[in-house]
Amino acid sequence: MSITPAYSSVSISDKSVIIVDDEGDGDYTSIKEALNNSNPGDTIEVYSGTYDEHTIVIETDNIALEGISYELGNGSDTGKPFIYGPGTDQYSLIAIKADGVTINGFRIENNNGGNVCITLYHNASKCIISNNDIAHTSSALIWVFGSDNKILNNNISHSVIRQGIVLRDPCSNCIVSGNVISDAVTGILLWDSNNHIISGNKIMRCSRFGIDVAGSNNKIIGNHLENNSIGIQIYEFFISVKRNNFINNEVHAQFIYGIPLFQRFTNIWFGNYWDKPRLFPYPIRGGLFIFIPTIQFDWFPAKEPYDI
C-alpha cells in the first residue's frame, strides 16, 4: 500500500526515484509493489531490512534496483537489504525479462527448495548484476540466457546440486568478472555459450569443476582457481586460458574434443601459474572423443601466482 513518502528524494509523482523500506519509512514496503508502480528509467532504492518477496518479476526496461545498506527512519536494520525466497516463477526468486536492468547491493537467498536466485531470460540484455551476496539454493545461483550482460563483483556461494553462474545458449558476449564463487558443484558453466570474457574471479571448493566450458571463442583470463576437484574443463574449440592461478586443485585442467581434426591449435594456454614455479612447459591432458588421449601445453607458465 502506498503511503506518504517521508524520505523520498523525489516526489512519487515524478517516478524517478522510488524508496522501499520494510518498516514503512519510504514510498513502499514491498519491492514488487514498487516495481508495479515504476516506469522505464526509474531507480528503486531499497533500504536495510528483510523482504520476503518470493518471486520478483522485472519486465520494465532500464530499472535500477539499488540496495542501500542503511536504516531509513525508525528501526535497527543494518547491512545489505535481504531478499528472501523461495521463488515461484519457474523456481526463480528474481526473474529479469527486460533490458538494461541493474541489481546492485543486495543479500539474496532462495531457500526452502527454490532452484535459482536470479534468472536473466532471453529478452534480458545489457543488464548488470553487481555487488550482491547471493547464496543457498538447490540449483544455479545466477542463470543467464540473455546476451551482453555483466555479472560483477558478487559473492556467490552454496549451490547444493548445481552451479554458481550459468551462461546458457543462446546468450553471448557477457562479462563475468570480480566474483568470489565457492562451495558449488561447478563455479561457472558456459553451456553452448560463446564469446564471453571470464576474468578476475576467485573460484574455490567446487566439488566438480571450477569452470566448465562448452562454447567457442571464450576468454578465461586472470582467474584464481583453488581447492576444486577440477580447476577447468574445456569441451570446445578456440578458448584462451591466460594468466590464471591454478592452486591445490585435484586436477588443474583438462580438455575434451569432439572432432579429431583440430587436435593441436584449438585452445591457447599461456602464462598460467600451476601450483608452483615452473621452468618447463606445463602439460594439459585431454582426449579426442574423450577416450583417445592427447596433450596440450602452456609453453610459458608463470613463475609466481598473480595477485587476483
Write the topology of this structure.
Elements: E1 17-20, H1 31-36, E2 43-47, E3 50-52, E4 56-58, E5 64-68, E6 82-84, E7 92-96, E8 102-104, E9 107-109, E10 116-120, E11 128-130, E12 133-137, E13 142-144, E14 150-152, E15 155-159, E16 163-168, E17 175-177, E18 180-182, E19 186-191, E20 197-199, E21 202-204, E22 209-214, E23 219-221, E24 224-226, E25 230-234, E26 240-242, E27 245-247, E28 251-257, E29 268-270, E30 273-274, E31 282-288, E32 292-298
Parallel strand pairs: 1-2, 2-5, 3-6, 4-7, 5-8, 6-9, 7-10, 8-11, 9-12, 10-13, 11-14, 12-15, 13-16, 14-17, 15-18, 16-19, 17-20, 18-21, 19-22, 20-23, 21-24, 22-25, 23-26, 24-27, 25-28, 26-29, 27-30, 28-31
Antiparallel strand pairs: 31-32
Question: How does this model look, in words?
Answer:
The protein has one helix and 32 strands. It is mainly β and 308 residues long. The chain has a domain at 85-298: Pectate Lyase C-like, CATH 2.160.20. The strands form three sheets. It has an eleven-stranded parallel beta sheet. It has an eleven-stranded mixed beta sheet with strand order 4-7-10-13-16-19-22-25-28-31-32. The protein has a ten-stranded parallel beta sheet with strand order 3-6-9-12-15-18-21-24-27-30, with no helix packed on it. Strand 31 (282-288) and strand 32 (292-298) form a beta hairpin. The protein is elongated. The model is unreliable at 1-13 and 260-264 (pLDDT under 50).
